[in-house]
Amino acid sequence: MSRVLIKNGIVVIPGENFVGERDILIEDGVIREISKDIPKGDAEVIDVNGSYVIPGIVDMHVHLRDPDGVEEGITTGTIACAKGGVTTVCCMPNTNPCIDNPAIVRYVVLSAEKYGRIKVHPIGAMTIGREGKVLASYDRMKSEGIVGVSDDGNWIEDPLVMKSVLETASMYGLLPISHCEDKRVSLNGVINEGVVSLKLGLPGIPPLAETLAVARDILIAREIKSRIHIAHLSLKDSLDIVRYAKSCGVKVTCEVSPHHFILTEELILRKKIGLKVNPPLRTEEDRLALIEGIADGSVDVIASDHAPRKTLSSDLLNDPFGISSVEIMLPLCYTFLVKAGHLSTLEMIKKLSYNPARLLGLDAGDLKVGNKADIVVFNPDYREEVDVKSFISKGKNSPYDGFELYGFPTLTMVDGKIVYTKDI
């Protein structure tokens, strides 16, 4: 029997709203005891000297780019996740070929078991080919391991198809995750439609492309009393729609990505690389509204929307969308939410770990006796400057190069096994 004892940590247990000094005893990868002054016995001791000990992040929106693997892949993507404090990841289906049938789901699951550093759960496509027409085989994909469905990158324009998606997802206990962008409105836009797009002479993406889609999907969910999860919400107006729907009893949840509560479109005037993302960076008013929504509970989840790209040019017109960020997920959130005074560490962990696990029906995101030991340790006082060139991820398309951040993980553990360490 392998026994590991984590001592002298500030343990965060979101399921019990607890933060305090505790030791954690792990036996054969499972948490066996959480209490003060656990005797060492024959256990290997890891003394964390007052660092935070948290449940690993459950990032429900990551692009591992596998199948294909050219711009990322299971190996580099999951190592990057471990470095960022992520122990469970949901990989989106807009791959080549897309994850729209049980054979591809099986490939992802087996690849993750063989090459992955952390736990990987596929999200299946809502429709075959993500074309928004014919529903994929939810029952067969679920039997192979999907935990939700999404046509991420595309929005289902036909309301009757979307209604069938929500009904079928509900039938099989799968979370429907909607990429809310009406491309009949966004057309060929590349950044937010507004002052900055006018100054740069670039085609803009109107906010209406998102709000229209958010409102329609919520109305369908209300009509059939189903769940709906809005991915990467980016606008104050979208958040207001979600907030009102929740007050009316609609079973809607939403996520926000770090770049939307950290950055704004104004940065594009000074820096181009790593700033083309979909949904686009918005205004300062939107950014502040998202932080308020995270703080007041209107936003349920923080997810990275890690989208690695090989391209590192400043050609906003022709470059693909995407920001590489999962490698610094925990320090981004800790610096700009907790250190900035918007959230407590406990509240942050609920958004990063506890809430997404509950939404997806995963036995993860919490620290309790009997759970697998998916654990992250971080020192809140240690700071470091981001060096994108040192990223493990193949995607160096990050706007955070040179940012000084706090809260880098010093240890990441999955099933009681150490998968990442950092000396500070």
Summarize this structure as a short list of keywords or feature phrases.
424 residues; TIM Barrel; Urease, subunit C, domain 1; 8-stranded mixed β-sheet; 2 domains; 8-stranded parallel β-sheet; alpha/beta
End-to-end separation: 30 Å
- Rg, rounded, reads 21 Å
Total of helices: 12
- CATH top level assignment of the largest domain: Alpha Beta
Q: Characterize the biggest β-sheet.
A: 8 strands, mixed
CATH topology group of the largest domain = TIM Barrel
- Beta-strand percent range: 15-25%
CATH architectural group of the largest domain? Alpha-Beta Barrel
Broad shape = globular
The helix content is 25-40%
Please identify which CATH superfamily of the largest domain we are dealing with: Metal-dependent hydrolases
- Integer average pLDDT: 98
Count of the separate structural domains: 2
Count of β-strands: 20
What class, by secondary structure content? alpha/beta
- Spans of at least 5 consecutive residues whose pLDDT stays below 50 are none
Name the assembly state. Answer: single chain
Question: How do the strands and helices of this protein lay out in sequence?
Answer:
Elements: E1 3-13, E2 18-27, E3 30-35, E4 44-47, E5 52-55, E6 57-62, H1 74-83, E7 86-91, H2 102-115, E8 119-124, H3 138-144, E9 148-149, H4 159-171, E10 175-178, H5 183-186, E11 191-192, H6 195-200, E12 204-205, H7 208-224, E13 228-230, H8 236-247, E14 252-256, H9 258-262, H10 284-296, E15 301-302, H11 329-338, H12 345-360, E16 375-378, E17 383-385, E18 404-406, E19 409-414, E20 417-421
Parallel strand pairs: 1-4, 1-5, 6-7, 7-8, 8-9, 9-10, 10-13, 11-12, 13-14, 14-15
Antiparallel strand pairs: 1-2, 2-3, 5-16, 16-19, 17-18, 19-20
